[in-house]
Amino acid sequence: MAGDGQVSLGNTVMKGNARKVRRLYHDKILAGFAGGTADAFTLFERFEAKLEAHQGHLTKAAVELAKDWRTDRALRKLEALLAVADETASFIITGNGDVVQPEQDLIAIGSGGNYAQAAATALLDNTELSAKEIAEKSLTIAGDICVFTNHSQTVDVLDY
């Protein structure tokens, strides 16, 4: 999983080295976010609590967080997306209560997400690059195209 470091407020770059990818639940789960930073931290905390409650079961924790996000008045106002993964699955969790398992196990969220996903799909289909290399190159391409994506990268890989 890889994330850029740019935090924007409107058309202004507020921070260029944010860490949008984190390890959760005893370092067994990777989680990344796009959207409002404060909202994302709230969701990270809630998601980690769901992981603890469900002994690290990614699917169950993702579905339970999505249910809460959809039904809780305070959470419904949060504007962020989460990308989460463990050794067996990956999901995008949205504020609409959706838990989406992506095609080809490619997840791309945020302003540069469409660019990164297009690049990753092409690299996956046409090269022998590792998942880490594809993530890095795709994020670099997105940063070249999208003004809300920069080249400061956090990359993390689950070893299993």
How many separate structural domains? 1
Task: Provide the β-strand percentage band.
Answer: 15-25%
Element-by-element helix/strand order: EEEEEHHHEEEHHE
Query: What structural category characterises the helix and strand content?
Result: alpha+beta
What is the fold named in CATH at topology level? Answer: Glutamine Phosphoribosylpyrophosphate, subunit 1, domain 1
Order of strands across the biggest sheet?
4-5-6-7-8
Secondary structure: number of strands:
9
- Approximately how much helix is present in the residues? 40-55%
Number of helices: 5
The main sheet comes to: 5 strands, antiparallel
CATH architecture assignment name: 4-Layer Sandwich
Please name the fourth-level CATH homologous superfamily.
Aminohydrolase, N-terminal nucleophile (Ntn) domain
State the separation between the terminal residues, measured CA to CA: 14 Å
Low-confidence stretches: none
- Using only C-alpha atoms, the radius of gyration works out to 15 Å
How would you describe the shape? Answer: globular
